[in-house]
Amino acid sequence: MQEQSRNTNRSEHNLSNPRYLAQLALFIAIILVMKILHLTSIPVGPLNMTLTMVPIAIGAMLLGPKAGAIFGFVYGCTSLYDAISGQSAMTAFFFQFSPFLTILLCVGTRTLVGALTGWIFNLVKKVDRTNTICYFVGGLAAPVLNTLFFMSFIMLVFYNTDFVQNLVNTLGATGPVALTVMMVGVQGLVEAGTGLVVGGAVAKAVARALKLDR
Questions:
Q1: 3-class DSSP assignment, residue 43
Q2: Quick check: 50 and 191 in contact, CB under 8 A?
Q3: How many CA atoms lie within 13 A of 129 on its CB side?
Q4: Are 189 and 183 in contact (CB under 8 A)?
Q5: How far is CA 122 from CA 92, 107, 116, 193, in A?
Q6: So what's the pLDDT on residue 5?
Q7: Domains of the chain
Q8: How confident is the model at residue 107 (pLDDT cuts 50, 70, 90)?
Q9: If you placed Cys at 142, which of 53, 70, 92, 136 could pair as Cys (CB 3.0 to 4.6 Å)?
Q10: Does residue 7 surpass a pLDDT of 60?
């Protein structure tokens, strides 16, 4: 029965499946509309509190890791646009410093987050007898991984740039870890909480409504 379910999911999550393509298009449209309406993030100091991780998490859980990677890529492209256009002061500076590394930061990390969110959800679902916990784990995974990868990349690659060193001096940080905690702060907890509660609950409800919850 489980093997049959896995085979069914593989056939449904195929780019030749019109329903799957329509679902991909729907989530991509949601991400782009959120961007157009300035609902993707809320500026908090040098960082933005990211809200787009919620639909990315939901899409990755419902449609799989491949779809999650696509949604992460789309969001990453909107983030890169902010860097190129100067709408994000920090990533705009990074883009001037190194366009290639900024592409990896904005697009690469988000693509990986989407894929891993779907993978983690599938992994937990295999051992989740309640068939509920897995949704909240997936909802939490996206914002946590996004913060972890994004900030780790900045600290590893851009820490010695003038922009980051100015933040170090302004905030009085004693090192990369302290700076990360100071920059992320409450916003990281809010992102994680939103992903956990909203992402998990909505994904579970939609899965049940569409009879994907099997």
A1: strand
A2: yes
A3: 0
A4: no
A5: 36, 23, 10, 21
A6: 47
A7: 2-209 (1.10.1760.20)
A8: very high
A9: 53
A10: no
